[in-house]
Amino acid sequence: MIKDTVKGLVSSGRLEFINGGMCMHDEATVHYIDMIDQTTLGHRFIKEEFGQIPRIGWQIDPFGHSAVQAYLLGAEVGFDALYFFRIDYQDRDTRNGTKELEVVWRGSKTFGSSADIFAGIFPKNYEPPPGEFYFEVDDTSPVVQDDPLLFDYNVEQRVNDFVAAALAQANVTRTNHIMFTMGTDFKYQYAESWFRQMDKLIHYVNKDGRVNALYSTPSIYTDAKFSTNEPWPLKTNDFFPYADNPNAYWTGYFTSRPALKRYVRMMSGYYLAARQLEFFIGKSKSGSTTDSLGDALALAQHHDAVTGTEKQHVANDYAKRLSIGYKKAEELVSTSLGCLSESGSNSRCSSPTTKFGQCPLLNITYCPPSEMNLSQGKSLVVLVYNSLGWKREDVLRIPVMSDSIVVHDSEGKEIESQLLPIANVSLNLRDRHVKVYLGTSPAASPKFWVAFPASVPPLGFSTYFISSGKRSASISSTSTLNSQGNESRNLQVGQGRLKLHYDAAGSLSQYSDSKTQFCLLSRITCTQESLPYFKVEANFEQKYKYYIGQDGSGDDPQASGAYIFRPKDVVPIKTDGQVPPTILRGPILDEVHQQINPWIYQITRVYKGKDYVETEFIVGPIPVDDENGKELSTEIITSMATNKTFYTDSSGRDFIKRVRDYRSEWKIEVNQPVAGNYYPINLGIYVEDGSKELSILVDRSVGGSSIKDGQIELMLHRRLLNDDGRGVAEALEEKVCLDDQCEGLVIEGKYYLKIDPQGDGARWRRTFGQELYSPLLLAFTEQDGGNWANSHVSSFSAMDPTYSLPENVALLTLEAGEHKDLSAPASVDLKRVFPDNKIGKIIETSLSANQERAAMEKKRLKWKVAGPPQKENVVKFMIDGDFMPVRGKTVRYTIKENYPGKFVPELTFTQVEKLRALFRPIISLPVPEAPPLHYVDNSHPSPSAAFLPPSASSSYPTQSAAYVHHPSAYVLTPAAHLAPNEPYACPDSQPPARTAQFAAPAYYVTTTGHLYQASYQAYGPSPATYHYAQAPPLQLVYLQAQHPVRKHVTDPACSSDPNYDANGNDPYRYDAVKSHYQETTSGRAAAPHEVAATNLQLVMHYGYAPGSEGATRETTQSSAEGAASAIYSHAGAPATTQAAPLVYAVAAAPHEVAGTNLQLVMHYGYAPGSEGATGETTQSSAEGAASAIYSQAGAPVTTQAVPSVYAVAAAPANL
After folding, report:
1. Which of 295-299, 784-788, 860-864 has the lowest mean pLDDT?
2. Which residues form a coiled coil (predicted)?
3. Does domain 479-759 have CATH number 2.70.98.30?
């Protein structure tokens, strides 16, 4: 009954779902993948239960707002508007004065206006307006007393209060529509008291007549705003950091509860992998699933969950829910891996005989499956699963008991391995926390980490075997800094090209990379040995420090707490006098162990095959015996001149430029120079100085900044003794208790550091950042003897094993039911991603998968932006079914398989870094979204390996010509001086030099001939060039050579040329093509047509209504000249309607462009007098060419456009 009532209210529009996720997620400490997942779960439920699609984002309480929220979790899920409250108090004051509280938010430079969203900022808070309009039963606001017989009759006063509040808000708001948020936290416990008073207010206010009051919803309000056709101010970037008064920057929660933040991130990566495995074997109706973990993770994204801004018992509850969900998903993962390893396929399986164990406490050196006794002829089987769509190469570290072990790979080959003694601090951490978490003390402790390289296929696993052996793994050599002999000698660490240098005091002083040739130093000089080509010098130090948190005493009672970061003082942590560093060396990696102080331990790792530094830290308990709360940070200090500028990620996706003590949209008064410059970091932070970049990536959400030029700092841990007065009512003092003895929280974590040439760091930040979010999943079992290969498969990939996704494409979801390379468009061959599945249909949907994208885009509101037009790059894409160019946006494709009973996978792809526009000059690099063509050189009996696909056979001279997407790009030299059918010099003195395919904005250009100029030997006539000047894609169905080339009869070199026949023809070379084009975009009915002609140039043009935007982004006019202006010559200049020599237009079968009622006319260039495709003979004049253009009715038209038909007379000559 209640359900039916609610559904009736929803269907009538009286009750509206806004936001629609499982929670109102945070925007500073969450990863964008988690934001997508929790929103998708909520949207799916709303769609299935109510048939509704939310239109409005409602993020009223998160403490600052990210650009990713605006475009990815706003526009990309189909929202028309986003409303929120918490922005910096100075920013709000400025916007109040300029009426810019409501803006168009353009959160992505990549997507431009296509991802704009209307953003409404509340003028004061998300509560009723000023004037006492709180109507809970225990509130003290005066009710509307409308009985004139009573002494407290107050209708006029209450109306005046309401009107005054409305007029005050109208003074800071554009248009005559304003929103009152009638409610706040913990209200409507007795809803009748609210609605009774609001009914009276609406009635008497409207009777007064000065303003019109009505019950509304955010959607109704948004539509009213849109209907005014008002242009709105433009907002870019984000709303971080947030402060609500001069000494209260909400930047502490970026780090609060670091253990919970890490647990959430670990479970996120595990959830991604578990869903894939669940998909491979089929979702169980009665057994374990990933649903419980998905629900717990969704809840953990709440803005008072992963943020660390909850009471301790609530944080414990979040962790408990995650643990329960993990245990259920763990069972599923074990079953899935057992099935896949036994069958080698994704056929349904529910009860494998192989049982795999996992090690969720591996971070504290606890892994019971790997601590087995290998002396009885048993082997430890390590299955390594890769959830990413590309091949992974990594180094695994597993605790083992013995030093007499050997490691074999999936093929049974012995591989190199290294043993590293486990540090005492790690063993102590293990002993205490295993008992805390499991209630029992662990058995005998392992003695070593065994490290070995692993190679894992995409969406698949590899298997490794650890067994006892006579020849053991390499045991790391151990030394300390003061045992190196010469105290003044500098210590060098690193087995590969990356080297770290430590000075005699044990401080990191130099970073050198023999590939990038970067050297960072302080007290020593980079030598020619460490820097063979050139060097870049800067100071380089790594230190720890802690901030003493304000305790709330003094004139300003604001304390540092769970939300607020307010340092009172900073204390550097000195390492002098501590235990000297210990160095472990081996063939795979080197480690430097440092006891920084009694509660900070650090391990720095340099891997032989890696070009980054891994730093592991064990921190805690933070001492508070002096009654001072402390906030621990580590900092990297260099001499780089960074000009106050640094870059931090936005929810793990984009990077945003930050400038210290500066805001782009208002003049900031800096009251807190440290806290006011802290930003959330989910992926990483970097600085640059014009020649190099220093990047740091993190394993969880933290706060960070560049407080001084050349410096990066990360806040790792916080322990505070005072509440900051923002609602928790509890100090941030986390403890771990064992046997009634409680100690402060100890955390273990990692960060990763790399230095690159300027502009090259983006590749590492993106690819490795994705690997950090999706770590390799390890599972363990044991076997007797060596018969694994007889009963199991040792490797598996759900994809074609020879195929990997491009590095800038990530498979975010597979479930049942700024770099020059990575910023280019990417294509994905779905047949190779899912070679065992028949793909029946691809449906592009919104990001939360609750509606088809085409419908979403059609109904989304397009907001006007005030001011001059903004220059932007708009990216267009196509899908052709089998070979699928991926959007530059993160989108979700649902693939429906043609098999009954199979589950529907949902694929979400993302392209990363700054996207360059597709609108490039015609001579620029090839773009990979062109159809996958191949070229066969038919010029000589002896094939050229450079241009032949592997399938070329001995029948080479008889093969037809096709095209290749050549890996190199060449400038297409105009062939204006070549005349059609003119014979050319014999080519055999020079073999074919170059064949290339060129691409341009919304065009595909293919060349079949070689270049005539630029010192290349002429090999044929002017290239046959095809331009698709069109918005929707065309699919190239086939190309085939048709016409032989004559030899140059006066050239004596041709007399002995065996490749010419008696008639002077080269039987192996063709210059013209027969082509068949089929338009594949749904909704556009275009009949296929064929062309068979000699030496032609094809240009296809769409006509547009006057003033509309053409395929080349030019605005056409209602004339032939206007339409022609949308055609570009090779140099980029527009062509006119006057036909150039040797280029004449002949129409093929015209067809309509959907939605415009206009014609597409195709033009072909021919030599004078030749026969055109329509059987008409053209003349050497523009009029002759124009006469061959047909209208829809079939009658010839002139170059003067007729209504609704825009005909372009000729193509440019020099393409």
Report:
1. 784-788
2. none
3. yes
